[in-house]
Specification:
4 strands; Nuclear Transport Factor 2, Chain: A; alpha+beta
């Protein structure tokens, strides 16, 4: 079984040599070795793992997350492999989900990734939105897998990115006080929500946050 390459936290970058003079004649082998080690120090952290921070695959995933959760559907769509374009949700639903996330000011961050041969990366993704901000909760961390082929995303697998506890808290609050309006604005489906649901959450955000704090004690 091939070893898994894990992203270290707090990877360090090697120092630039104090002198830029070329190596003296007869020392070129040593200079070459030092150069290799210096380059490696850019990728090797204290934990001994190989950093994936600058790998094209990780940059692709970050670009996808920034676009999808930042309201840029066209950019997110352009990063998908053609095979996925044919099997994904309808464009209308996808655009609605992207707008929902943008209205709620969703924010994502990759905390760590590992390579899963032949062409998959498993990443821990931090997710938060205005609900987290309203009650001072840290981002939820969700594991996702990203299939990559020829510089494009072939698939995204894993749980829907959200803070499940805060989503459940708001749902309970809304069904207690505004059941009809909540049902009209939001859909009860996995992995999807509508822009109208985001607007509903914003409209009742402060009242929910106050209620949530009391419930949490």
């Amino acid at each position: 079984m091939s070893p898994v390459l894990v992203v270290p936290e707090g990877a360090t970058v090697g120092r630039r040599p104090e002198s830029h003079r070329p190596p003296r004649r007869g020392h070129w082998v040593l200079a070459a070795v030092v150069g290799v080690l210096a380059a490696a120090s850019l990728a090797i952290g204290e934990s001994g793992g190989l950093s994936l921070a600058n790998f094209p695959e990780r940059r692709l995933i970050e670009a996808h997350l920034d676009a999808w959760y930042g309201g840029d559907f066209d950019t997110a769509d352009s990063l998908k492999a053609p095979e996925r374009l044919r099997t994904g949700p309808s464009e209308e639903r996808a655009r609605g989900e992207v707008e929902y996330q943008a209205i709620l000011e969703a924010d994502t961050e990759l905390f760590g990734c590992e390579l899963l041969p032949p062409a998959t990366m498993r990443c821990d993704v931090g997710y938060s939105n205005v609900l987290n901000d309203a009650v001072g909760e840290e981002p939820a961390v969700v594991a996702q897998q990203f299939g990559i082929r020829d510089g494009h995303l072939l698939f995204v697998a894993g749980s829907y990115l959200e803070d499940e506890s805060l989503t459940a808290s708001f749902r309970y609050f809304a069904n207690l006080l505004f059941p009809v309006d909540y049902k009209a604005a939001c859909v009860d489906e996995p992995n999807y929500q509508t822009p109208s649901c985001a607007e509903f959450k914003l409209a009742h955000l402060e009242d929910w946050a106050s209620w949530h704090r009391i419930e949490e004690g």
